[in-house]
Amino acid sequence: MWKFLKDYITGKIQTYKSAKIADRETTDEAIIALAYEFNGRLSADRLQRRTKMTWEKAYERLVMLQIKGVFEAEHKAEHKNAILPWLITTFVLSEEYWHEAKTLQTSSPALLTDADMIRCAMDAGGTVSAAQVCVLMYISVDAAKAKLDELTTKGVFTTHISDEGTVLYEVRDTRLLSS
Fold first, then answer.
1. How confident is the model at residue 128 (pLDDT cuts 50, 70, 90)?
2. Which of 68, 66, 9 is nearest to 43 (CA)?
3. Domain with 125 in it: what CATH number?
4. Rounded CA separation 79/132 (Å)
5. Do residues 13 and 83 share a domain?
6. Cα-Cα-Cα-Cα dihedral of 141, 96, 42, 31, to 10°?
7. Of 36, 48, 72, 137, which is the most exposed, with the fewest CB atoms less than 10 Å away?
8. Whether residues 64 and 121 fall in one domain
9. What is the gyration radius of the CA atoms in the chain, in angstroms?
10. Nearest one of 92, 98, 89, 113 to 26, comparing CA atoms
11. What is the mean pLDDT of the chain?
12. Per-residue DSSP letters for the chain?
């Protein structure tokens, strides 16, 4: 019984610590920049996929930013009377934050890490295109291409052109593919 209780409490503490770390790593400015990347529209699901936050934490952060006036909540007309309308809420960047978001998008560090990009390529068999990364990582094609080009200059990827004319990025360290 005591071991179960100890394990339960330890698990809760680890979850709390992870949530705090995710909270610190994802600043309000980074969330605003991410919203700009998606034309000013952000959902808890999309924020959760792009950060280390849980869905609940992502929703909570978006609501807090809504209270601060950064976002306005948008509910689709066909879902207004849904049992759980907050599940499908989209947060839209308010007009006054639109200009700030554009500035943050170009000056803030990306939420996407090098490891995320390498893992994405590994999951795809070692070779990806910017369009594949866009779909798999829920980012814009421009952001995917910029990050892939950055990692190519660092020597992580090599590039070649497919028969269809698509630029493909291939992981140079083939040992990663066998792990």
1. very high
2. 66
3. 1.10.10.10
4. 31
5. yes
6. 80
7. 72
8. no
9. 19
10. 113
11. 76
12. -HHHHHHHHHHHHHHHHHHHHHHHHS-HHHHHHHHHHTTTEEEHHHHHHHSS--HHHHHHHHHHHHHTTSEEEE--GGGTT-SSGGGG-EEEE-HHHHHHHHHHHHHSPPSS-HHHHHHHHHHTTSEE-HHHHHHHHT--HHHHHHHHHHHHHTTSEEEEE-TTS-EEEEES-THHHH-
Give the full edge-to-edge strand order of the sheet including 71-74. 41-43, 90-93, 71-74
Residue 26 and residue 64 in contact, taking contact as beta carbons nearer than 8 Å: no
Place of tokens 């590994």: 122
Would you state the structure tokens that stand for residue 179, as one six-digit string? 């792990």
- Domain boundary among the residues 89, 107, 125 is at 107
d(CA 90, CA 66): 11
Could you tell me the pTM of the whole model? Answer: 0.49
Structure tokens at 109: 């560090």
Report which of 163, 179, 142 is spatially closest to residue 171, judged by C-alpha positions: 179
Per-residue pLDDT, 135: 80
Q: How many CA atoms lie within 13 A of 159 on its CB side?
A: 14
